[in-house]
Write a structure and sequence with these properties.
Length: 336
């Protein structure tokens, strides 16, 4: 690897192994931008963990397309400025899809993934964090994300096997495997120094065991976390892929465009909630706080609502659905 050229390091591993924590801890020491996957914006994720078979395809496709957008738009922009440390690879989505999809859904997914993968960059260094199943389950329980509380250990075990198989056959660049069973980079400076030294050695920069510097200029390191904020036309991408898959993609990508816009709407509502909470904490009454917060975010919320409505109407038109008639029929049926 040539040091003078900006590199991309991707940290990979199964759910709970500590990818994001490590990426956050080392990117400044490596003088690199931080690129994080934005999984919270997936509107299907919580429902997926409640009913995997029902929501697997929607969840996987949303992740695939949002990660594709991030890799084709954010990565080139960031790498022009310097090095990047990321907490995922584009290939990870396919590993999860192997567990979650089958039949026609897997066939369509695999074709779309293959077409998109040709336009993404492989990492210069892939860091694979390994851990045993009991360690992974303990870490998942410790971070206590609500939608992960009922996660089945057999699901994590299957993912672990697929990750191991992928890494055994990995040929797309340099691979560094680190066993994390007895490491805790969050609480142990020695453990963090050890991992950072292994990565620097893999980059050809030697090994280091010095204390980590204090960041006295937080603005120095660009942080990319908002993959959904980049202008991106999923429907247009669908039209480009029609010949690769089949003529169902245009309809499907219209649906994915709607879910993308719902994700952006959820961001605006989160901003609204935070503004309202800050105002209430400062002593404002709840009604006044809501009014003031809306005055600051109303334009953005209206724009997102209009985009969602437009996509919904487009989808209804393409499926030959009279929304008004369907709404009245379904409401009448439910009220009987």
């Amino acid at each position: 690897m040539r040091k003078k050229q900006p590199w991309l390091i991707s940290i990979e591993g199964v759910i709970g192994v500590g990818k994001t924590s490590l990426a956050r801890l080392i990117h400044q020491q490596l003088d690199a931008a931080l690129l994080l996957e934005v999984f919270e914006e997936n509107p299907f994720l919580a429902r997926f963990y409640g009913d995997r078979s029902r929501y697997a395809f929607q969840t996987q496709m949303f992740f695939l397309l949002s990660r594709y957008r991030q890799h084709t738009q954010s990565v080139p922009e960031l790498v022009r400025k310097g090095h990047i440390v990321s907490d995922y690879t584009f290939a990870k989505d396919k590993m999860f899809a192997q567990v979650n999809l089958d039949g026609d859904e897997w066939t369509m997914y695999e074709k779309i993934h293959s077409a998109l993968a040709e336009h993404t960059r492989n990492p210069d260094l892939l860091v694979y964090l390994k851990a045993d199943l009991d360690v992974l389950m303990a870490r998942i329980a410790q971070r206590d994300r609500p939608y992960e509380r009922s996660m089945d250990s057999s699901y994590i075990a299957e993912l672990n096997d697929i990750y191991d198989e992928y890494m055994r056959n990995y040929t797309n660049g340099q691979l560094l495997i680190i066993d994390t069973n007895k490491l805790n980079v969050i609480t142990s400076q020695d453990d963090l120094n050890y991992v950072l030294g292994r990565i620097r050695e893999a980059l050809g920069e030697g090994t280091y065991q010095r204390a980590l510097p204090i960041d006295d200029d937080p603005g120095r390191y660009p942080v990319e976390t908002d993959s959904m904020g980049v202008e991106f036309d999923l429907a247009e991408l669908g039209r480009e892929l029609v010949e690769t898959v089949d003529d169902r993609t245009d309809l499907f990508f219209s649906f994915m465009q709607l879910t993308d816009q719902i994700g952006q709407l959820s961001q605006e509502l989160a901003h609204l909630w935070m503004l309202e909470s800050d105002l209430i904490s400062s002593g404002e009454a709840k009604g006044i706080a809501r009014s003031q917060a809306l005055s600051k975010r109303n334009v953005q919320i209206q724009q997102r609502l209009v985009e969602c409505t437009d996509s919904l109407l487009t989808l209804a038109d393409r499926t030959g659905t009279d929304l008004d008639a369907a709404y009245r029929r379904i409401k009448n049926t439910s009220n009987q």
